[in-house]
């Protein structure tokens, strides 16, 4: 069996979009390993305090957590064959934009998901993406196409 395609799912954490892609991967029987950041917001925000000790200011708490999270993000982005970044309705996902830029800098194929009304705001990100989708199903279809056996 061929090695699984590693796909990093970056972006918003306030919806079940990762689970929807995961379900599509299962249904389509795709040989894909899905990777992602820690999506439990509190766990991600508190990892520095929990692992290295409590900080007295929000700045240093966030600083430690960001660095520990960066270890995970950098490692998984490097492992990924493809990076998918989702920009959602809730909050501004600065980290998602950063991950998109980092993926491009590492020459990783970038797929982006966002609603049509975000097109203008994300035009620079979209310009670097190899595909811009509006649904998770479209991303799953792209991944399925990538894995087509040309000898079949």
From TrEMBL:
Entries under Pfam families matching the protein? Nuc_deoxyri_tr3
State the InterPro entries in the record: YtoQ_family_protein
At the top level, the lineage of the source is Bacteria
What is the protein name given in its UniProt record? YtoQ family protein
